[in-house]
Amino acid sequence: QVQLVESGGELVQAGGSLSLSCTASGRTFSSYTMGWFRQAPGKEREFVIGISYSSGSTFYADSVKGRFTISRDNAKNTVYLQMNSLKPEDTAVYYCAARSSTIVVWTTRGWESWGQGTQVTVSS
């Protein structure tokens, strides 16, 4: 498994942008499919976006299409989440996740490693 540490969460105004980072240590980062999930108060953790390690294909939740992008820098063992046009409903704790399969899955099950999360708050 890899150890994951997220950073970059903060308070931002609606319509603004924010970039989150997730840095991995441990096993070979380039062999892990990476994903971002989020969890708002009182709600279940939900899939946001993911990127396959083999094809580089990306997958998005409908709620973030056209606004969020994911990228990775294998040389830096880091995956990024760029969030634009932020809305109050994007407020949540954002978690980075990793799995050794090439397939991105939408459920929390099947992801082998998780970060501690970083708080994103979007004010209206």
Describe this structure in words.
With 124 residues, this protein is mainly beta. It is 0% helix and 50% strand. It has no helices and eleven strands. The chain has strands spanning 2-7, 11-13, 18-26, 33-39, 46-51, 58-60, 68-73, 78-83, 92-99, 113-114, 118-123. The strands form two sheets. Strands 2, 4, 5, 6, 9, 10 and 11 form a seven-stranded mixed sheet that branches. A four-stranded antiparallel sheet has the order 1-3-8-7, with no helix packed on it. The chain is globular and about 40 Å long. The N and C termini lie far apart (39 Å).
Concise structural overview:
This protein has 124 residues and is mainly beta.
Task: Report the helical percentage.
Answer: under 10%
Report low-confidence residues grouped into runs of 5 or more: none
Q: SSE order in H/E notation?
A: EEEEEEEEEEE
- End-to-end Cα distance, whole Å, is 39 Å
Question: What is the total tally of β strands?
Answer: 11
Task: Average the pLDDT over all residues and give the rounded result.
Answer: 95
Largest beta sheet, briefly?
7 strands, mixed
Strand content: over 45%
Helix count equals 0
The general outline is globular
Structural class: mainly beta
Radius of gyration: 13 Å
